[in-house]
Amino acid sequence: MGKLLLLLLIIVPAMEIGVLILSGNTIGVIPTILLIILTGILGAALAKKEGLNAIRTAQLQASQGQVPASVLLDGICILVGGVVLLTPGFITDAMGFLLLIPQTRAIFKGFLQKMFYYMVKNGSAIYVSGGSWKKRP
Which GO terms of the cellular component aspect does the record hold (predicted)? Predict the structure, then answer.
């Protein structure tokens, strides 16, 4: 997992620079900068809207005695999507919007559920019991 993350930290910025240069050459520098600013503003507004919806849903489920597990995964996706939208670039913006739109977010939620399941199954998950961190036995 660490090697994959390191690889992504090298490849994604390099790809972003290439796309930004291509965009600057194709539509111009000023329109490219304005487009990056516009996607950031739209992404922040969408992240705020979706985040507030997730909080309301979680509060409603908690008040009814339900565990808001699905909504927590929504919240993780919204948080990651919002953070990714803050980074300048078109590839990360596309990924951020995919994480913020409810219909496409479901795909990522399924991936997260499988990942958490395998972490628990393999014993690599950490959980809190009585206020102290414990590695799963």
Answer: membrane
Q: Collapsing DSSP states into helix, strand and coil, what is residue 129?
A: strand
Neighbouring residues of 35: CB distance < 8 A, sequence distance ≥ 6: 23, 27, 90
pLDDT for the residue numbered 129: 54
Domain ranges (residues) in the chain:
2-122
Q: How far is CA 76 from CA 32, 93, 94, 113, in A?
A: 29, 17, 17, 12
- Residue 64: φ, ψ to 5°: -90, 5
- Contacts with 40 (C-beta within 8 Å, 6 or more apart), sequence order: 85, 86, 88, 93
Question: What's the confidence (pLDDT) of residue 8?
Answer: 84
Q: For 80, which DSSP code?
A: H
- The per-residue pLDDT for range 46-76, each reduced to its tens digit, is 999 999 999 999 999 989 988 888 888 899 8
Phi, psi of 68 (to 5 degrees): -85, 55
CB 113 within 8 Å of CB 101: no
